Each structure stands twice: as C-alpha cells, then as structure tokens.
UniProtKB/TrEMBL annotation:
Residues 1-29 form the signal peptide. It comes from Dactylosporangium darangshiense. Keywords: Signal. This is Secreted protein. The lineage of its organism: Bacteria, Bacillati, Actinomycetota, Actinomycetes, Micromonosporales.
Length: 351
C-alpha cells in the first residue's frame, strides 16, 4: 500500500498573505499517509479503478456496502463516493474507520426519493497528517459535524480549516493560506455522511491569496435543506488525495455550466484548460481527460449550485488510447429528472 499518499456574498477574500505550502507526514512520509479507492460494477471490483487490488466489497442490507481497504488503516481522513448508474441514484458515506491494519468504509446508496438501492459506484478514502515538506499545489479537506465541529481536517499550508453553520443545511468552509490567484481556482468534492439519505454539494466558492472559502449545501431526499455531517476536499494543481508528482496523471474540470474558467480546468500532463466537455443531451456531459489514461485510476463527481440537484456517472469511465473518457456525467433534479446542472469532476491515477 502506497504512503504518498451576507452568506453567499460573504464568500469574498479576506486579506492575508499566502503561507509557504508544506507537505503531509509523518516526518519521513510523502503526502498522503494513506489512500485507497475502489470501483464496484455491481457484482465485482474493477481492477483498473481499485487500489489496493485486493480491496473487497460485501453487500449488506439493500443499498449498503462494506468496503475493506487492506493495509490502509489511518486515523480519521475523508471518504468520497459517486454512484454509477443510468438512472437517478446517489451514494453517500455511512461511517469508516480502521480495523487492525485495514480501513473499513460503509457506503449507502439510494434512488431518487430516498429508497435504498444497490448500484455500481466509485469511492476513495484518503488521510493526511500535518505538513513537513513543500508540495506542488494546494490541498485541504474537512470532515465536519452539522454543528461545524471538525472530526478531522488537513491543510497543506499548515493552517487550521474551519466550518461555520449559516442556516439549515448550509455551511461556510474556510481553508486559510491555500493561496491561489482567484477569483475561482481548483476543484472540490463534497459527500454527505449520514445513516439516513442525504446529499451534499458545492453551492459556491471563492479563491484568493488568503485561501479558499466554500459554501456547502446539503439536502434530504425531499429536497429540503438538511443538517448532516459531510466531507469536503479541495485540490489545486494537486491530485484529489494530495499527492503529485507522482502521481503524474490527474485532472479536474468545473462545468458551471458552461465550462468554468481555465483555472478550474487542469491536466497534470498538458496544463490548464485542455480537458474537454461535450454536451450529450439534457443533463448529460461527455468529459475527456487527454493523456491521463494510467491505471488504476478513480473518478469522482460533485454537483454545484444552490438547488438540490445531484449528479452521478451514467456508466463507468473508459480509456481510448491515452485518454480517460467519462460518458457521461448525468445530473438530475431532486425528483430524478435530467437537468443541465453544474458539476465538478476529478480524475486521478495511483501513479
């Protein structure tokens, strides 16, 4: 196992200087401490989307999965998960934690309306500890309770992230010193953590030399705002699990829609603004990450915007030559009708 591993208007830069960015440890380790991911096709793990290769998935009650990542045990960390289905399904984290040397993650999946249901999915677990050496980009995460209390957090600049409740189902997340030019840079992934059906998304965010400020919104199955625990990860010219380079192969893109600024479209091989999006029908978007087809790899999607829309992957991503192709990202209203909604997508290899 590798060890590299106001309200809306208030999302304005607060003045502060950027801090020197440093990497995660323990002292001799590269960022992150632990990372593991899995692609489940509904009956088996998929080798090209799973790390470690011996990861296992066991089904439980309808819609429940127990994922065991061998050798990936770590204190705290974060989980993100995306459903893979041609219908309006979503997945969320239930709980996770170490079991001896292994990390065990429980995932729950639902169809529109909140009925538990089995589906294919892709999930990632990552844990980092305080920084010690310089990294290439910016990286941070939070695992937050509904009150804003942090279960865990990481900031590659060594600062302390914060989560402030604003209203039912709405929080302002601040990641100080993760400095970027602004006004919006990088990418994010958000996941609800709950034993009952819940979804979370990025409503809005702003970037500046002072750091990142993100408005997270969460909803219940009826579309009403919901107070829930959630995870949120930020990446800027860095992989979704904080490492780079290696991995040499990762990329992200924001469909606002239309495409966000060049600073939200990055490819570790080719640079900014080269990943492409092609509309494929109402609520469907084909995304292509050129020259990133190195396996195993994971892909995650998070919806953006103020409404209770949600997004998943219509089918598993695949590889054409040296490119990763996602056909398609599918987005839905709370009722399950396809809609042209905003989303963030991140593709990341292990190497």
């Amino acid at each position: 196992m590798m060890r590299r591993l106001a309200i809306l208007a208030s999302l304005l830069p607060a003045a502060a200087a950027a801090a020197v960015l440093t990497t995660a440890a323990p002292a001799s380790a590269a960022l992150p401490d632990k990372v593991a991911f899995v692609q489940w096709n509904g009956s088996a793990t998929v080798a090209t989307g799973t790390l470690p290769a011996t990861t296992t998935v066991v089904t439980g009650p309808v819609g429940r999965y127990r994922v065991l990542f061998p050798g990936a045990a770590a204190a705290r960390g974060v989980v993100h998960v995306t459903a893979i289905n041609d219908a309006p399904y979503w997945c969320q984290a239930n709980t996770w934690g170490p079991a001896g040397l292994d990390e065990v993650v429980y995932i729950d999946c639902y169809k529109a309306g909140g009925t538990p249901a089995f589906t294919a999915f892709t999930a990632i677990f990552e844990s980092s500890s305080p920084p010690t050496i310089a990294i290439n980009g910016r990286f941070g995460y939070v695992d937050a309770q509904p009150t804003g209390a942090l279960v865990s957090q990481f900031n590659s600049a060594g600062a302390v992230n914060s989560v402030t409740p604003l209203a039912v189902g709405q929080w302002l997340v601040k990641m100080p010193n993760l400095s970027t030019p602004g006004p919006v840079d990088g990418s994010l992934q958000a996941t609800a953590v709950n034993v009952a059906p819940a979804r979370c998304k990025v409503a809005k965010w702003s970037s500046s030399p002072a750091g990142q400020q993100i408005l997270v919104s969460c909803f219940g199955p009826t579309g009403a705002p919901l107070n829930t625990r959630f995870t949120l990860t930020y990446q800027y010219q860095q992989s979704l699990y904080g490492a780079g380079w290696p991995p040499k192969y990762f990329g992200y893109l924001w469909n606002a829609p239309p495409l966000g600024p060049a600073s939200t479209n990055f490819n570790s091989v080719l640079g900014p603004a080269v990943n492409t999006l092609t509309p494929a029908g109402t609520g469907l978007s084909l995304v292509r990450f050129p020259q990133l087809a190195v396996t195993p790899a994971t892909v995650q999607v998070t919806a953006t915007g103020p409404a209770p829309d949600f997004c998943n992957l219509l089918t598993s991503w695949f590889y054409i030559g040296t490119d990763i192709v996602v056909r398609d990202v599918a987005c839905y209203t709370n009722a399950g009708t396809r809609i042209d909604s905003g989303f963030l997508i991140s593709a990341n290899s292990a190497f």
